[in-house]
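ok, trying the design again with the full structure, not the truncated one.
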């Protein structure tokens, strides 16, 4: 018999109530489990879970802590998506499946406040390159004239450059004249 097994068997050293590993620390024991087992036990205990959940909620009630937590979690997710292609593909598949259920569409039909807000947010991101006064023209090119976005963008950018040149020469803002025309 090894020294370790002998020591344990003669009960000179306390052991974990779960895995039986000897616990050599002389600190007073708060739990009958070793460090490796105690986490699993806490995770299964309803009262421990309630306590952990309450303290987490209290911590996240602070908007700064909450914002930091969200940012850290998002950064972790971005990192994993970058470095683990299988994980990224699994997430894409789940997203596609969820999208096909169209649950959000039923709950929030077109024109509902949430959809309008999301539309504005997505336009702000996708059209960040395009000054607001040129967005109607950009949308007209794409929707009415069926010009692909990849071609419409350089057309708008040319227009912006031409307007800037004309403004430098004449002091008149062509885009504001154009908006007045459209409104008349
Ligand atoms: Zn253990």
């Amino acid at each position: 018999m090894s020294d370790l097994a002998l020591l344990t068997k003669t009960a000179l050293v306390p052991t974990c109530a779960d895995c039986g590993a000897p616990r050599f620390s002389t600190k007073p024991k708060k739990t009958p489990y070793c460090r490796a087992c105690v986490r699993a036990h806490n995770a299964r205990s309803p009262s421990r879970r309630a306590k952990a959940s309450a303290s987490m909620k209290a911590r996240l009630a602070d908007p700064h802590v909450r914002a930091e937590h969200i940012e850290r979690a998002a950064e972790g997710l971005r990192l994993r998506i970058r470095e683990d292609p299988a994980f990224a593909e699994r997430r894409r598949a789940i997203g596609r499946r969820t999208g096909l259920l169209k649950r959000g569409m039923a709950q929030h039909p077109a024109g509902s406040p949430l959809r309008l807000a999301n539309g504005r947010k997505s336009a702000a991101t996708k059209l960040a390159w395009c000054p607001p006064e040129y967005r109607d023209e950009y949308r007209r090119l794409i929707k009415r004239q069926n010009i692909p976005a990849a071609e419409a963008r350089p057309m708008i950018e040319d227009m912006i450059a031409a307007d800037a040149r004309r403004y430098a020469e004449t002091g008149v803002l062509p885009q504001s004249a154009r908006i007045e025309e459209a409104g008349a």
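Keeping the full-length input from now on. The two ends are 99 Å apart (CA to CA).
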